[in-house]
């Protein structure tokens, strides 16, 4: 049982180490995407929606209008994708943190169980040793009694 607990403990510790590495990478990516999104939102707020309208209205011909419209759509798609990626990264981080907490709790439980098993084994060994000493003492006393009171002399 102790070997099984140690193996499980090692596997969990490896999983925790791997999860921590993934969490660090995910947090770095999240921070980068969030900063990029923040910069885009500030730029959009400062420029306002009139910038998009200005692009379309300043077109000199239909080709410029369509190009401007396409460019605006690309910006909007990029912004939406960026917001979605930030939300997904945030969710991934939360899920990873929850997994990490579960694994750390499980490690604590396994360590406690291993400690409990160790104490039980030590107590069992102590009891066996005491029993063996008691048996030895009983046999010694029995021999002494036979030496003191030989059975043949009573007949």
Topology:
Blueprint (H helix, E strand, L loop, with lengths): L1 H46 L2 H8 L4 H87 L7
Kindly summarize this structure in a few lines.
The chain is an all-alpha fold and 155 residues long. It is built from three helices and no strands.
* Residue fraction in strands: under 5%
Following the backbone from N to C, one meets helices and strands in this order, namely: HHH
The helix count comes to 3
User: What profile does the largest beta sheet have?
Assistant: none
What is the alpha-carbon Rg in Å?
Answer: 38 Å
Low-confidence stretches: none
Residue share in helices?
Answer: over 70%
Total DSSP E strands: 0
Overall pLDDT metric: 85
Dominant shape: rod-shaped
Which structural class should the secondary elements be placed in? mainly alpha
How far apart the termini lie comes to 58 Å
Polypeptide structure, described:
- The structure is a single chain.
- This protein has 155 residues and is mainly alpha-helical.
- The protein is 91% helix and 0% strand.
- It has helices spanning 2-47, 50-57, 62-148.
- Helix 1 (2-47) packs antiparallel against helix 3 (62-148) and helix 2 packs antiparallel against helix 3.
- The longest helix is centred in the C-terminal third of the chain and has 87 residues, at 62-148.
- The mean pLDDT is 85.
């Amino acid at each position: 049982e102790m070997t099984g607990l140690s193996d499980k403990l090692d596997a969990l510790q490896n999983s925790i180490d791997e999860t921590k590495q993934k969490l660090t990478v995910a947090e770095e990516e999240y921070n980068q995407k969030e900063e990029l999104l923040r910069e885009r939102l500030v730029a959009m707020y400062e420029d306002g929606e009139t910038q998009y309208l200005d692009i379309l209205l300043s077109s000199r011909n239909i080709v410029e209008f369509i190009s401007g419209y396409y460019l605006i759509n690309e910006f909007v798609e990029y912004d939406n994708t960026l917001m979605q990626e930030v939300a997904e990264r945030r969710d991934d981080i939360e899920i990873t943190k929850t997994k990490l907490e579960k694994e750390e709790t499980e490690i604590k439980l396994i360590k406690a169980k291993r400690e409990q098993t160790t104490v039980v084994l030590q107590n069992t060994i102590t009891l066996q040793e005491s029993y063996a000493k008691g048996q030895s003492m009983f046999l010694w006393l029995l021999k002494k009694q036979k030496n003191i009171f030989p059975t043949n002399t009573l007949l």
